[in-house]
UniProtKB/TrEMBL annotation:
This is Guanidinium exporter. The chain crosses the membrane at residues 33-50, 59-79, 85-103. InterPro entries: EmrE-like, Small_drug/metabolite_transptr, Small_multidrug_res. One of its GO terms (molecular function) is transmembrane transporter activity. It comes from Litoreibacter arenae DSM 19593. The keyword Cell membrane applies. Keywords: Cell membrane, Membrane, Transmembrane, Transmembrane helix, Transport.
């Protein structure tokens, strides 16, 4: 269950990272409220997951999911560049996430 919560927390991290773009400097009320709510949900889920997942592993995977998800979202929806080097770096992050999960004792 902790791993499911961690993945869900990472997905909500993507939500608040993307939401920051839509707040336009926190000047738009609804995007700001949704972004803040996503931040809170993400942190609560991360905290719950860290009850049984080691801190370093959990935090690294949480930020990795957020990073990969935000990069993919930016490529798909904001026409950000999808260069080979950029995608290779995302693959390195993904391999780190998988590696941490594989060596985790929980």
């Amino acid at each position: 269950m902790a791993w499911f919560l961690l993945v869900l927390a990472g997905l909500f991290e993507v939500g608040w990272a993307v939401g920051l773009k839509y707040t336009e400097g926190f000047t738009r009320p609804w995007p700001t409220v949704l972004t803040a709510a996503s931040m809170i949900v993400s942190l609560v889920l991360l905290g719950l997951a860290l009850r049984s997942i080691p801190l370093g592993t959990g935090y690294a995977i949480w930020t990795g999911i957020g990073t990969i998800g935000t990069v993919i979202f930016g490529i798909v929806y904001f026409a950000e560049p999808a260069t080979a080097v950029r995608l290779f770096c995302v693959l390195l992050i993904l391999s780190g996430i998988v590696g941490l999960k594989l060596v985790s004792t929980t």
